[in-house]
Design goal:
The protein is an alpha+beta fold and 221 residues long. 24% of the residues lie in helices and 28% in strands. Helix 4 links the parallel strand 9 and strand 10.
């Protein structure tokens, strides 16, 4: 009779797969295609790659709606994204749970990205914007000032390349409206070379008028 190979048993008492059996096993994906070992090892490496945009969840509220069967509870998320340069976006969405609400808000923010102009590490000029009841004032600042702003404004500006800014919220404290006002203020930035009068040609120097004989006689008198 042929000799039977000894079975390898783990400490827990279960059978252990031998190296020969493991080498003959085939792993297939959802669609049924064969996956190589290198594919199995690198499945999670794509997620580790640096993302172009950074996401920040500014606020999450629990909202309710009264229906025939009672109250329907949902979550509303306010998310801001930016590339730490000159692109930023804000999105608001609702979901049955916090995770789905944040994912929907992030997708909305990516669709509503705004590209604005900068002057070194600050904004180009002073701007005052309103969104419903929110009223936000933003001013450029000298290097080394930092970001002097409240919670919502600081969160959004922190996702851009602006390092020096002075701002003040003058109206409503609604975070969604403040976020929209900040993004609108950044969108309205105009570069210095496009300001009205910046392209005006310098005045030509006038030639000195030669003194006539009549004017010389007046000076002598």
């Amino acid at each position: 009779m042929p000799e039977e190979k000894a079975k390898v048993i783990n400490k827990s008492g279960t059978l252990k797969m031998t190296d020969e059996v493991a080498a003959s096993k085939e792993t297939r994906d959802i669609s049924g295609r064969r996956m190589n070992r290198r594919d199995r090892r690198g499945r999670g490496r794509e997620d580790r790659a640096p993302k172009e945009f950074e996401e920040v969840t500014i606020n999450i509220d629990r909202v309710s709606r009264t229906v025939k069967g009672g109250r329907r509870m949902r979550f509303k998320a306010l998310v801001a994204i930016g590339n730490h340069k000159n692109k930023v976006g804000v999105g608001v969405a609702k979901g049955a749970d916090v995770t789905s609400a944040v994912q929907k808000a992030t997708a909305v923010a990516k669709r509503n990205l705004v590209e604005f102009s900068m002057d070194s590490e600050t904004i180009c000029h002073e701007v005052e914007t309103k969104s419903t009841g929110a009223h936000v004032l933003m001013k450029p600042a000298a290097p080394g000032t930092g970001i002097i702003a409240g919670g919502v404004v600081r969160s959004i500006i922190g996702l851009t390349g602006v390092k020096n800014l002075i701002s003040k919220s003058l109206g409503s404290t609604n975070k969604v409206n403040i976020a929209y006002a900040v993004v609108e203020g950044l969108r309205q930035q105009v570069p210095r070379n496009e300001w009205v009068g910046s392209n005006a040609k310098p005045a030509k120097a006038t030639k000195p008028v030669k003194a006539t004989k009549a004017s010389a006689d007046k000076e002598d008198k």
